[in-house]
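sorry to bug you again but im stuck and you know this stuff better than me. what follows is a protein written twice so to speak, once as letters and once as C-alpha cells for the fold. id like you to explain what the C-alpha cell line says about the fold, in plain words if possible. anything you notice is useful, everything is just below.
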Amino acid sequence: MSGSIQVVRKQQHQQQHQQQHHLQVKQQQQQQHHYESSCYLSSRSSVSQQSYTTYKTTSRRVKTSVKTEKGQEVVKLSPLPKRAKRTYLAMDKDKEVIGYVIPIFRANHDEVRRLMEARQEDVTEEGINYVAMRQLFAREAREAMEVRVEKKTRTVQIRESAERVELSRTIDEWAEFRKKMNPDSLTHPPELIVKPRGMTIWEGNTVKLYCTVAGWPKPRIAWYKNNVLIDAKARPEKYAAESNYNVHSLEIRNCDFLDTAQYRVSALNIKGEVSSVATIVVKRFQDGEEEGPLDPKPHGFCPEYGVTFETSIIDKFEVAFGREGETMSLGCTVIVYPTVKKYQPDVVWYRNSVPLKPSKWVRTHWTGERATLTLVHLNKEDEGLYTLRVNTKSGFDTHSAYVFVRDANVELEGLPVAPLDVRCHDANKDYVVVTWKQPAVEGGSSILGYFIDRCEVGTHHWAQCNDTPVKYARFPVTGLVEGRSYVFRVRAVNRVGVSRASRVSDTVVAMDPSDRARLRAGPLAPWTGMIKFTEEDPTVGIVPGEPSDVVVTEATKSYVVLAWKPPIQRGHEGVMYYIEKCISGTDSWQRVNTGMPVKSPRFALFDLAEGKSYSFRVRCCNSAGVGEASVSTGEIIVGDKLDLPSAPSSPVAIRNTATSVVVIWGASKEATNLVGYYTECSVVGTDVWMPCNNKPVKQTRFVCHGLTSGEKYVFRVKAINAAGYSQNSSDSDAVVVQAAISVPGKPTGVTLLEAVRDYMVVGWTEPATDGGGAIRGYFVDYRTVKGNVVGKWHELNHQALTTTSYKAENLKENVFYEFQVRAMNMAGVSKASVPSAPLECKEYTITVPGVPVGLRVQEVRDSSAVVLWDPPAFNGRTPVNGYYLDVKEASAGDEGWKAVHEKVNRNKYIKVTGLNGGTSYVFRARAQNLAGVGKASAVLGPVLAQTRPGTKEIYVDVDDDGIISMIFECSEMSEGSEFIWSKNYQAITDTSRLTIVQEKGRTRAIFNSPSLDDLGTYSCVVTNTDGISSSYTLTEEGLLRLLDISHDHKFPVIPFASQMAMELLEKGRVRFWTQVEKWTPACEVEYVFNDVIITQGKKYTMNFDKSTGIIEMFMDSLEVTDEGTFTFNLVDGKAKGTTSLVLIGDEFRALQKKSEFERAEWVRKQGPHFVEYLDFAVTQECDVLLKCKIGNVRPETEITWAKDSNEIAEGDEDAKKIQKHDGDLTFNIGKWVLKQEKQAENEDKKPPADDVPPPPRSKISKSDVGIYEVYLSDDRGKDKSVFNLTDAGYQTVMNELFRVIANSSTEIKVLSTEHGIVLYSSVTYCHEELRVNWLHKDAKMAASERVKSGVTGDRLWLNINEPTEKDKGKYTMDIFDGKDGVKRVFELCGQAWDEAFEEFQRLKAAAIAERNRARVIGGLPDVVAIQEGKSLNLTGNVWGDPLPEVSWTKNEKELVTDERYKLKFEHGKFASITISAVTRADSGKYALLVKNKYGTEAGEFTVSVYNPEDEENKEDKKD
C-alpha cells in the first residue's frame, strides 16, 4: 500500500515540474518575435482563413576570433557551407516534420532604402495590400535576415494539425457535394456504398461476401485473393460471383484453411477505381489445451511508451500441404494490447529460422491486424518450418507450423521429379560452380545423372552445359562471358526419361570476386570533383610471374577442378592462364587450353581417364608474354573423393497427433559433407513407399504429417550428400497413427457439497479433456485461510480417488479451508484446479438439498445438447424429488439466466433444445425436495453449440434375419477408446435385453427379444475422444414399425416390379405376364387356373426369363371355358410371392371378342390390305389429299378408285390426280389437269410451260363432294376402304383447310398509297368460303366507300381511304380456322401511324403533281425531212394545270419570234412553230419545252433540210 502511495506522489511531482517547464517556455515564446504564414482555402460558397505557425531552418554563420600579428582580435564569420540549402519543412524539437512554410520574398538593403524614400503622397493611392507588403519588406531588412522561431508544444501542434485536416476535409466534402449536385456531371467514379465485411468461420462452411457499388458508367467488379485475381468461371465448384442491381457478391464454398486470406473487391470505370479489403479467417477444430492468460510470456515494460505491450496471436496457420505450381497463403491475426497510435509491431517471417525477404516467390502483407505470407508458385525449396515473429517494445511472440510441398504430377509414369535448391558458388570471370540437392523420389528407376542448363539474363534461350549426365550434385560451368549475368537450372534423368526442370537459381554475374566485393561494399568516399594523375608503374610491359598455391579443390570420375592464386607481379593489365597436365611416369607436359587462355583462377578439366594419375601446373600470360610455370600439384588420381554416406540407423516412430508421427533415428556414422535426410513411410501390408519430406532435413528427428488416422505405418530414412543417396535404413516398428496420450486437463468447479462439525464433503467436475487416456483418479489438496493470509497446501489423500467427490475428515470447526483437485491418467498428474472459495467447516442447518454435482454435457449439436448431473451429496431434511436446469449465453450477465423447463424434472438428465448454432452457453442445476429448491450448482461451460464436422448419429438396422440392432460409428478413435452404451443415461445392468458387439470404429447394440420393456433413450459415448456421443430414442410407434420390418425380413415376400397383366398379340394370341423385382436362380414358378395347376402343352406355353425376371404364359385363343382366375405362385428359398388376374363376366367377353377380331385382322393381312384406311390431309400448300397406306401388295394386285360407285378409269381426268409411292396412295382433289397436257401425253410430248398458264381453280369445291372408295384385290384376297366426303365429312375437310390457311397468314403489315393506308396479310391460299372479319378497337368494321376489305390473290387487305385521326388504334384481322379463329393484331398508332400517314400524304401530293404537271401530249414527229426553200409548220399539243409556260429551242438554244421564226401558243393547248423558206442552216435538233410548278417536259424532234440537186449529183457520182 505504501508503495502505491509513493508512486502516486512521484507522478504528481513530475506533473508539477512539467507544468512549470511549460510556463517558462510559454513566457519565452511571448517575448520572441515570430512570423506567421497564412494559407487561404476557398470554395464557391465560403472562404476561410487559417494561420499556420511553422519553423524555418537557415544556414547560420559561426563567429570565430582570430589574433593578428599585432595581437588584435578580429571577429570573422565562417564561410557558408557550399551545400547548405534552405528548407521549408516545419519541424518540432524532435526533428519530426509537422508542416510546410510558404516562402516569403525578401529584398536587399538598396531596394528597401528606395522604397522608404518614395513620396508619401503616393501611399494614399496605393492599395492596402501593397502597403502591407512594403512594410513587410522593411521589417525584414531591419532584422537583417534573422528568422525567429515560435516553439509550440506537441499538444498545440497536434491540435492545429487536426484543425487543418478537419478544415481540408470539410472543404473537400463540400466540393464533392457541389460536384455531385452539378447536373452536367453525369459520370462519377465508383463508390463503395456497403463494403465487404471480414468474417471468421469454421472449416467446411460456405461464406459469402457482399458489397454495394455506385458509379457511372457502371463499374466493372473484380475480386482478388491476396492480390491474385479470382477467376470464378475457371473454378465454379469453389467460387461463385454474382452481380444484381449494383449488389455484388462472392461465394466461397467448402472453405478450408487455405482460404484464409485477404479478399479485395475492386470497382473500376473511366472515372477511377476504388477497392476495399475484407479478411476471411477459416478456423479448424484443434485438440489440446491452449495457453491461458496466466501463462508467462516474454513481455516487459516499455519505458518509451509507458506501457507493457502484450501480444496475442490468434487464428493461427496450421500444418499446410501444397503442390508444386500452386499458390499458398499463411496468415495469423495479431492483437497487440494496449493500442498506441502510430505504433506498429515489427512482423518478421522465417523459414527454418532464416528471415524471409520479399521476392518474386515470397510476398508478405501486414494490415495492422493480419499478417499474411503468400508463397507464389510453390516449389520444394519452399518446404520447411515457417515462423511468424511479432516483435514489440516489450518483447516478442512467435508461432510456427510446417509447410509440406508435394511434387507436381509427372508427365510420364516412372519419370524422376525435379531436383531442388540450385545454387551458384565460387563465381569468377568465366567460371562458376553449380550445386543442387537430389529429389526425394527417383521415379521408376534410379537416377542416372543430371543435366545443367544455363540462360543469359535478358534472353529466353536455355543452353545445356553438359553432354553426358553428371552423377554428382555439383558441377563446374566454364565458358561464361565476363560481365554477363546468368541463371541456372537442373534436370534429373533416369531410364524412363528426363524430369521437369528445377526452379532457376539466383542471378550470378561472371566477374572477378574482388570486383564483386567492391560493388557490394559501395563507394568508399563521395565524389570531390578532383581527378589525380600519376605516372605509369614501371612494371607495365613485364611478363607476369608464376601463380602460387595450385591445388585440386574437387576430384570426381567426371572432372577435376584446379584453383590457384594470381601472381604478385602482373602489371596494371589483367593476366590470363594456361593449364598444363602431365601423366604420371612421363615428363611430357601438355597444354590443356591451347585455343583460349582462361581469365579466372579456377579451371575444370574433363575427359580424364578414371584411375590414372596426373600432375598439373599453371602459367600466366599477358601482352608481354607467357610466364614461368607454377609448382606442380603432384600426382592426383582421377576418381571420386567423396563417398556415399552410410545408412542411418534405428528409426523409431512415436505417436504424436491423430495425423502425425515423430520419427527419430541415429545419424549416419560415415557421412562427409552431409546434405540431409529423407524420411519415407508405408502402410503396413503394402509395398508403396511415400516421401514424408521433399526437402532434406539435417536433424535426426522429423514430424511426419498428413497420415491417415488409425492406419498402421512403418518408416525408413536415407541420407544424401553431393555423391548421392545412402542405403535405406532398416524399417521402424509399426505404429498406429493416433494422438499421443498426455496428462489430462484441470478439474473445474470445486464446490462444497456437505459440511458437519469436523468434516466437509467437496465435489468437482471432471476435466474437459482426458489427454487421450482414461482418468484413473483424483488427488485433493487443502489449506487454511485466516483473513487474507493463506497457509501451505497439504495432501488429503495418498491413493487416487475414483469419484468426483471426497469427504475431508478431521477438520476444525469454524475454520475456513480452500481445496484444489488434480486429475491423473497413465501419462501423469494434471495441473491443479482453480482453488475453491474459502469454505467454513460448520454443520449444515439448511433444510433444502445441496447442489447437484458432476455436471457434464454430451451430444452437443447446433441446436441442442444433453446435460447430465449427479444428485447432491446433501439431500436436506427430505429426499430430493426433482431438478431444475438453467441456461444462459456465456456472454450475458447474471440477468440472462433462463429456466430450460417449467415443471420439475425427475431425471438426472435433460435435452436442451432451441440453441443457436455458433453460440456458447453455460448451464447450472438446482435440486428440489419438499422443503424447497436448493442453491445452484457450479456453472458448466461455456459450451459451444455446434455440430462437430464428421459427427454421426445412432441408426437402427434390421438385417436379413430380422435382427434389430442399433449401430454407432466413430472414425476418430484412439488407442484405449471404447464405446459405452447406456439406457436413459444410466449404465445398462440387465445384459439379457441387449448384446453389445464391438468392431473397429463401430459398435452394435442388438435387441435379444424386442418388447415394450426396451422402450427408452439409448446413448453411446466414445471414451478418450473430444466428447463424441449420440443417442436414439426408441418409442412404441418406432418399435412396432421395426417389428413389422423384422417380420418381413424373417418371412420375406418376393417383390413384384409389376403385377400380372394381360395383352393381346397378333393372331388373337393372349399373353399373361409379370416381372419380379428380386429373385435368385433357385426361384420356381407354379401356374394355376381356377385352383388347378396347369402345365405346358398345346394350349399353354410358359417361360421364366431369369435374366430379366419376366414370367410369361401364352394362349393361342380365348374360349368360353377360359373364364376364371389365372395365378402365378413363386417360391424362392423361404420367400414366397403370388400374383393373380381375374377374367370373368363382361370383361372376359369383351376380351374374347377383341381376340377374335385380332385373329380376323391377321387373316386379312395375309393378302393385300390397308395398313391405314382412306383418310384426308391438307398440306401446307393447301392441297386437299385423300390418302391411304397399303401393304402386302404385288405387281399383279389391282388397285381401283371409285367416286359415288363410279370407277375412275385410267383415261379419266381424275385418274391424273391419283399417285402411288412406296405403298402410299394419294388423290389430289384440287389438282387441275389441262386438256393440252392430256394431248401431250397422248402424243408422248410435254407441253411447253408458257403455252397455257394454269387457270385459277379452288383447291376443293362442291363439285368434289362424294363417296370415294379404294379396292385391292388379287388371288390372295381383297380389301376395301371408303371415305365419305359429303355433309359432315366435307365440312371437316373445309375446317382443316381453313385452319391451314389461317395459320399461314403473316403478321399485318401497313402500306401507304396515294388514296390512303392499306393493312394487309399474306396467306398461302385463299378460298372463296373463307370468312375474314376486320375489327377496329375490338369493334367489327362495316364496309363503306371509305373503308373497304377484300382479297386479292393470296393477300387479305383492308383499305382506308383518306385516313384521319379517328382511324388510329388497334386493328384486328379475325380469320375463321374452323374452330375459334386466328387473330392478327396491328397497332396503327404512334410511330407506325406517323410514318404511314406521312407516306400517304407524300404519295398523294406526288400523284397530284403527276396529274397536273406540264406535258407535251402529242402532235410533234420525231424526224422532219423538208426540201430547202419550203416553209415548215409544226404544232404540238400541250397540257398542264396551271397553264404551262411554252418555249422552243434549237440545238439547246432558245428561239424567239422574228421574221424567220414564228412561235405561237393558242387556247392554252396548241403550241406551233413556223419556219418560212427553210435552208440547210435550219437543220438541227429542236425541242418544245413546257413548264409549270409541278414539272417540266420537252418534246424533241429533228429537222433535216435537203436539196434535190445535191442528191442527184451524189447519185450520179455513185453510178
Q: What stands out?
A: The two ends are 163 Å apart (CA to CA). Residues 2-31 form the longest helix (30 residues).
